[in-house]
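User: Assemble these into one structure.

Assistant: Restating your components, then the assembled model:
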Amino acid sequence: MTALLEVEDLSVSFPLQRGLFRRGARLRAVDGVSFEVAAGEILGLVGESGSGKSTTGRALMRLVEPDSGAVRLRGTELTALGGRELRRHRRHIQMVFQDPYSSLDPSMVVAESVGEPLEVHEGLRGKVRDERVRDLLVRVGLSPRHLERYPYEFSGGQRQRLAIARALAVDPDVVICDEAVSALDVSTQNQIINLLEELRAELGTSYLFISHDLSVVRQLAQRVAVMYLGRLVEEGPSQRLYAHPAHPYTEALLSAVPVPNPGVQRRRERIVLPGDPPDPTDPPGGCTFHPRCPYAMDVCRSVVPEPTPVDGGGTVRCHLHTSGPVLAGGSVLELRAAESGAATDTGS
Amino acid sequence: MSVLQVSDLDVRFATDRGWVTVVEGVSFAVEAGSTLGLVGESGSGKTVTSLAMLGLLPPRTSRVPRGSIRLDGTELVGMPQKRLADIRGNDIAMIFQEPMSSLNPAFTIGDQIAETVRRHRKVSRKAAMERAVAALDQVGIPNAASRARSYPHEFSGGMRQRAMIAMAICCEPKVLVADEPTTALDVTIQAQMLDLLRQMRDELGMGMVFITHDLGVVADICDRVVVMYAGQVVAADDVDHLFSHPPHPYAEGLLAAMPQVGGAEWLATIPGQAPTPGAVPDGCRFHPRCPYAADRCAAGAPELRLFDRHRATRCVRSDELLLRGPA
Amino acid sequence: MSTGEGGTELTDTTQRWTRHVVAETTADDLGPPQSPRQRFWRRFRRQRPAVLALLFLLLLTAIAAFAPLLAPADPDDQNLRNVLAAPGADGYLLGTDQFGRDMLSRMLVASRISLLAAVEAVGVAVVLGVPLGLVGAYLGGRFDRWVVRLADAFMSFPPLILAVAIVAARGPGLTNAMFAVGLVTAPRLLRLVRSSVLSVREETYIEAARSIGTPAGRIIRRHVLPNVLSPLLVQLSLVAAFAMLAEATLSFLGLGVVPPQASWGSMLQEGARFVSLAPHLVVLPGVAIALTVLAFNVLGDGLRDSLGREIRSGR
Amino acid sequence: MLQLVVRRLAAMVPLLFLVSLIVFGLVLLVPGDPAITIAGENATQAQIEATRERLGLNDSLLEQYWRWASHAVQGDLGTSMFSNRSVSGAIAERFPATVSLTAVAIVMALLISVPAAVAAATSRGRWLDRFATVGTSVGVAMPNFWLGLLLATALALNLRLLPATGYVPLDDDPVAWLAHLLLPGFTLGLAAAAELTRQLRSSLIDVFDQDYLRTARAKGLRTTSVIAKHALKNAATPVVTVLGMRISVLLGGTVVVEQIFGIPGLGQLAITAVLQRDLPMVQGVVVVTAVMVMLANLAVDLSYGYLNPKVRAQ
Amino acid sequence: NTEATGSASGGAGSTFRFAYSVGPSRYDPHRASSSFDNASLFPVYDRLVHLTTAAEPVPGLATGWQYTDGGKRLVFELRPGVRFHDGTPFDAAAAKANLDRARTLQGSTVASELKAVERVDVLGPMTVSLALTAPDSSLIGVFSDRAGMMVSPAAFDDPQLDLRPVGAGPYQIVSYSPNDRVVLRRFPGYWDPAAQRVETMAIVIQPDTTTRMNALRAGEVDAALLAGNQVAEARQYDLGVVGDVTLAFYHLQLNRTRAEFGDIRVRRALNHAIDRDAIIHGVLFGNGKPAAQPFPPGYYAHDPDLPDPYSYDPPKARQLLAEAGLAGGFEFEAIVPNTDPGTAVAVQEQLADIGVRMKIREVSSGEAADLFYGRQQGDAMVAPWGGRADPIQTLGLLYTSKGFSNPGGHTAPELEQLIGQARRTIDPAARTELLHQIDRMVLDQALDVPVVFADTNYGHAARVTDLRSWLSNKPEFRGVGAAGTGR
Ligand SMILES: Nc1ncnc2c1ncn2[C@@H]1O[C@H](COP(=O)(O)OP(=O)(O)OP(=O)(O)O)[C@@H](O)[C@H]1O
Ligand SMILES: Nc1ncnc2c1ncn2[C@@H]1O[C@H](COP(=O)(O)OP(=O)(O)OP(=O)(O)O)[C@@H](O)[C@H]1O
Ligand SMILES: [Mg+2]
Ligand SMILES: [Mg+2]
């Protein structure tokens, strides 16, 4: 697979305005993030609240201006485009947002909302546009007669279908789904996930699927990237990542998701991370995860880890793989297995 | 002996279309020192039921025409608000979904906890504050004494929820009702919270009602589960049995929709949408969405059938069906 | 539907649940389509006070439009030998004023000026406040900052005092007075438009429009404007109420309309000197003003409630 | 907190500059020649010219602005064209009456609105609420000069309950001070009371729907303490905002109310100055009231810190 | 109804509070600019010449005066033993200082009235003499007004003079807050104790007539200037009312060089179109007299034998217009001060009856004179003419070609010549005869459209005695008594 979308060393920060004399401080929401999405691939981006997932997505769309880094779509450097040029290229990369209730303009009927990209990019109007919108509605599993309806008349799941239809209207190469299913009931969530999978198979569109829900991402993504406090801590094929997490944070995250099976869940050994995610305005030095990391070493406090390749694909940023016990691309689970053999007290 | 016994509870609300029954015939019991899970889709009446248990339903727009709620033998339905207020926060406490908005932003954390203590215990302001600090310490807030002087916005989401728990347990209630206490939290924080709640339940021997959407959480913390659909209890079971042999098709559907470890690429969904109160279908309320529906399902409203003290279903075909859960 | 052939085998349960299909909601289940306007009417109709207020204002507008035809007498015709006649006396339904003019006719004709005053002030406020607020708030930047500063500066003046000062400088008269009232209201309107725009700007659908590649001008026209219209409408009704009161007050201070033109405010001002001899001179225009202002306010409330944002529920 | 005050005060500087420009700009709007008025009924052309010269009306606008503004900064707002007295002095003399009147109006507005709003909000949808809603609408709609006229006639002249006109300084006789301000204060404050009631009612209703109120009730708190402690403090923020905006309206309203009740305050000064075309005086009053409004807004901003600890932190 | 009589003890503590519509523009009499100032100035400043209630000159600080040199010299004998409030004695030197100050002070508003004065000489300790450039009979009247007010020479250069006036009047200032109130206390050394029957006096300024009435009704003042419509009301509340016509009259004053007003037929038509009785009845509630001549009945300048040629006669008016070729009427703009537009509104409607459309341009009262006289805007003005201390002043201002209050400067040569002659005529009887001739000519030429002499009314509490109505329209409170102290 060749990379369709390349993101290289992307950083985004927001100004912090606090006090009269502390101006100039900035919050680094995204810090040196790199990844690639291949054609027809779904890349899952997971992480806890505030880790910078949405900001990454918005930076790709140039909805926020990145501080540095490059975003290339089919080799075109999006970060270098401006004005009209940028607007033209926006058709290749579209977005579906989290909140199905506010992502559709309440004052517009479906035909206008979903048809807006067609008007803007292809200058379609009136009947021609409506025809295309009808097709799109059918494609996302809605009745073509919904054309003259207002968003408020739809349920959350239906609205999310509308949002997807709008994103697909101009045949984009990449669709960024920012928590596109988080606001929905499990069952509805599944319907949308099924729809996305179906569309990917049918149209070969690539997706950047942002979610905090690991199990949802696992369902959909071929590859997964994990963010913590603005940095990508681990990335790799989902099979590998779920079965053999290489980063302690990934491990903890997976372990924290309760398994819907009482027998298993009760017996399962769980890692409960102490404390809260750190304050993004004042991140810890070195590896930002070190204050909560059960395996933290001295080096973690001072040195920012570099990406290291992982067995089975992907990369990880963790000193455990280069110094200390030297996992060298192996799974952290090995470490735990080794440890629990010796002393059985690493859990809560 | 059940510390909390809800039987045959109806709740009605005044709406544009007149009085609408939102919760109907709900019964369950909570044992001291164990956790009862209350699950169901959005709008199935979980929150309404829990509010009814604390007498927190809006006074003029709601009504409990039928049923009984007994807390340690005391009947709460029909009790005057004044006496209910004495019981709330003292014998039965509640924590809510949004730790962000459930704490009053205008007062310090310590103040809000101490207020509860002073309301129910005849103690000095100072002693109440000491109790508040102790409770914060108990729920694992570091430097409890100084953090008690913080305002809610100075706390992270997890710490706020800890503070809510501290507030709930500071008078050592017999029953703790937790309405989706972890839904708004990150999974790593959720794991902390589940451990903490389990620990508090065991330390204080409380009975706990735990409301959630997430069957994973149910599997983690609940001993028994009650499944609600469209305002009714459709299934009740202990947790292991429910996950292996769901007693009701709806329960099976919920379980099937859970993303599974190494699960299929194609996800199960419960087709259609839950009915809105006041527009429930005749017969079994679930039958329009049920893959097992037969003609008689549409005919008469099924009763909740008890198998034994713990297990019940509201499905007329439960005997003939062989329902399977993931576990 | 492509099943998971390539993936793991579906479990029985999953298969059963996925194969079971229930008809999704279709357009026909939703009932006839309803535009926001229709929905607004449906809701608005339920608000009886607001409906009454609207009817009152419509009636008033009609009266104002046809006042010369409706007036039983020439409103300027004096009868200095029958001044301050009580209502009902000598065939004068509402009595006469201090020049012996027919109060009914004058009340009718004055309604024109009073309404016109409100319309003028609202017009000035809209022209000055809305475009600046709309564009400034959406685009932000230095221009916006200065607009806001200027608005703040204007808002630092007590509105009536500024209006009095402006009228002092420009001279009395309806146009000057209403220009002043419009000028002092404009920053408030601008503020409101701005804050609505700022909150609409944060809505996801604006971000969605930007992500589509919609140009800013189109976003302002198609997305921002329609969505700030309802709070704007509500506010306009309140501005109209304020303008009525302000006109009355300025007229009361002798800074408003010029005789023989009469507005309710100026009638009140002239009548105030006769309050103990002929209370009807004060009561009638006072009640008329209060009722109209009340109607504008109630209408505003009704609009607010009927235009309120959609409750976040599916259907 | 101190930082907040400093920052707010600093933010007032550009605002003050704009305000001064606007106020000075008022002069440009004036069509007439004030010199003719000042020179007197029987003035000759030469006298008028001399007057122009004396008043500096022949200088360039920039010079005139600079002269005015640089003096204004030092508290010297110039000299009345009409009476030759210091504008600052005249304003200082009138200041207490207007501040007293406004303060009494605000206090009355609060005394009326808080209980009314609590009663309305807690009995939402019932007759008490409807009554309050109608009452507030009427209160807002009533032209206050009209109300003042009626009140003065009914209560002061016919029933002789309260004084009809005049003002007694607070330090002369506090009781008489209050007695003289009750009617005008009520007249001025009623519209504010109505608007505050509306705002407080709706923000109370909002707060009643908040989760933390449910928490407070879940703790077993009594309804009174839920409302008095938890609801009111939180509902106060938007009310304080409205109050802040109202202050400028109230100050404006003094123009009429002082006229009706014969109170020697800034409003009356403004009107007299306007009728006498005494521009320095008009400018002075406008500037001073604008600064009062700014300070009131500052107070409002600072009170947010008390009501909402989040603001305090920033 | 010209006087509230009775006697009251002027004991300690007696107070008289009077509500007036405007405060003094400033308390320096030579710089004060409005005729309304006098009410506040009189108690503080005594003046050379006093006026009777009928506005005839009588001795004041000057016990007598005499024109010599064929009218080119005016000699005043001054009252001995008078002191200013600050103790400075009043003598010829002080009088000369004052007169020179009035003539030469920068910003003097009275200098133009003293144009004829060339030099002031001290002839003796109590005698001053004024050398005149030409005989000017109006000076006696002038010295009864602000020009004749004596300021303590010690206070001449006091920058605070406008706030703390020092005169030789019956009352001295206690406190003064401009546009609010003046508080005065009896000055112990005053030469005429009969003028000081109350211990303290306050002049309360209330621009709003209703507020003034309210204050009076509520007992917050003892007397107040009333509007015509309030007279009946005041009586209804058992308040006393004194009131009579004054020199002030409402007129439709024409700029005779504009619109159609150059034509005498038009001016006569306008005069015939005004229904003065109706206006008195309707607008003034009966409190006034119709005006034809520029002076009210009862004043020496008024000619009682002169019949009013302009009866209310709309057909005649229309006919005159038709003769002037204006059968279709015409339109003009009238400047109207916004304080009291009632008369203007009535006039407007009556003119409309003969097809003349008068457009009202309302302006603030301070602006009206500026616009109409100064910048000669507007075709006419409907406003009260305040009257002047001497009839010659009124005539000179209104009807001579150089008169400031005669925009356009239209006049009749014989009239101008007559006015000059009257100014030079010292003998009162001869002068009065000339004034009557002028009246006749003004009337004949229809130079003006006088409308009404409105009564000036003062309402007062029962305990107030000897409050009088002054033809000059400048109320003095000499001899006003007040029993008790009021509320
Ligand atoms: N416009 C903004 N201005 C300032 N800070 C921002 C802005 N947007 C995001 N942030 C901050 O950047 C950080 C990353 O935010 P982001 O929304 O990307 O996180 P996320 O991973 O999407 O979280 P969530 O799961 O809550 O959506 C957060 O600390 C957030 O507070
Ligand atoms: N105050 C109220 N007035 C009218 N209807 C109400 C009220 N509160 C709740 N309802 C209705 O009662 C039903 C049950 O609501 P409830 O909040 O108990 O659902 P839930 O199961 O807690 O859902 P969720 O998972 O979304 O919290 C819903 O249909 C809701 O619309
Ligand atoms: Mg996000
Ligand atoms: Mg709920």
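Residues 83 and 172 of chain C are 27 Å apart (CA to CA).
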